[in-house]
Amino acid sequence: MAEPSLQLRLAQKLALAPQLQQAIKLLQLNRIELREYIQEVLDSNPILERDESEGSSESSELESASPDSQEFTEEVTPDWEMDTLPNEQWAETPSYEGFSGESQIADDSDGGLLDHLLWQINLAHFSDVDTAIAHAIVYALDEEGYLQETIAEIRASLAPELLVSEDEVLAVLHRVQRMEPVGVATRDTAECIRVQLSALPSDTDSRDLALRIARDYLDLLARHDVAELRKRTGADEESVLAAADLIQSLEPRPGSRYDNRRDEYLVPDVYVTKVDDEWRVTLNPENEPGLKLNNYYIDLLRKSGGKDADYLRGRLQEARWLMSSLELRNRTLLRVSQSIIEVQQDFMEQGELAMKPLILKDVAERIEMHESTVSRATTRKYMLTPRGLFELKYFFSSHVRTDRGGVVSATAVKARLQILLGNEPTDKPLSDQDLSELLRQTGILVARRTVAKYRESLGIGSSSERRRLYRRNTARTGSEKNGRADSGTAKSTPFYSDPSFAS
Prior knowledge:
Layout: H1 18-28, H2 31-44, E1 48-50, H3 58-64, H4 69-80, H5 113-123, H6 128-138, H7 151-157, H8 166-177, H9 189-199, H10 207-216, H11 218-222, H12 226-233, H13 237-248, E2 270-275, E3 278-283, E4 291-293, H14 295-303, H15 306-343, H16 345-350, H17 360-367, H18 371-378, E5 382-385, E6 388-391, E7 399-401, E8 407-409, H19 410-422, H20 432-441, H21 448-457, H22 463-489
Parallel strand pairs: 2-5
Antiparallel strand pairs: 1-4, 2-3, 5-6, 7-8
Helix pairs in contact: 1-15, 4-15, 5-6, 6-8, 9-10, 10-13, 14-15, 15-17, 17-18, 20-21
């Protein structure tokens, strides 16, 4: 019989300081969410109030609000540098206390895709953590229902107390993809079709063959190459055509049937201007909420004791944390924006063709912060430039190799593709292979498959689709000309109600 024994185990657990949690939370909020959060704090904290004085700035408020304010800022600043925390530790936050799974922003669109998905999420049996992940996924969709952020970016955008593994994000993503409309939140057309086919009953005619075609031979289907599909799949022509019909009956753009038009008024968080041949970055003055401490309650704290003093002391600490966190938020947003502009000056001067490759890691290294910090600072934050209003994430793109060993931004490659496609012969559209060869002639090494991906992201159809569109437009133009000619000779009722077409 084994004797009982005592064992000692040592374990390390990361616990984020409350002020750090608040700083991270404020950084990831957009302007509307930040305004709502500040108002909630103002409603619950009597020591904190708005500074209505003219010409007040956040920096002066922080210096004058309390003798300890500046000292507190210096104490909390090192914690903000999240580089001191190992990446693997972010997923080990022990508690989700205080988290609410409800969306922080009410969406005003009627019958939109976002409303429809949020409604389903609220009815689903999601945990609080999975609800937060699902919301992050839904807010990252474009109008057609495609997911515009990577799994890593979605994970990094979550609140610090909700940091989870990428596998957990992927598991929630698969559940969202099965919501109505099926195929939403997929990364591309091929994945969208595969998800829709997988959701069909297993006994659906031609489902298995259609899944195989969607997985391996979707490019052949796009070219209507039935002979090659028969050869590759070993199926007869009737089966291939039936599978093709099944695929064509699906919706490749699941969000298109929803009214996704929203009255959104985007206000920039950052302004970029050129002064004396130098690009300058400034924050929107509205980012500074203008907060101060209420002197009445400060005096009351000095005179009171017991539970009243404890309560007021807690509210004072909360107010100081908020004001310091807001200052840190603005400082981080400014540093990230300045770093982006330093890299993308050529874009400011010349446009998309001059966009340089840039990833989160590049900016993180330049400003000596963690990648997750940069991700939070650039999500749903907007920059107004002489070239227009852009989300900060717009300036990040992968790179494509050149024949001289250099790299070029994927955004610049897309811009070149648009130029090539805009100048192509309408009756002989360029294939993806043709586009790949033309780019190669300019020194840009892009595979045909990559060209197809960039073309689809631009909303441009394949060469066969463009050829059919040209023929359809030509036929329509011919019929209109015939109609006008007939109306000029016959005494019948004209085809058009416009008087210019009448005989």
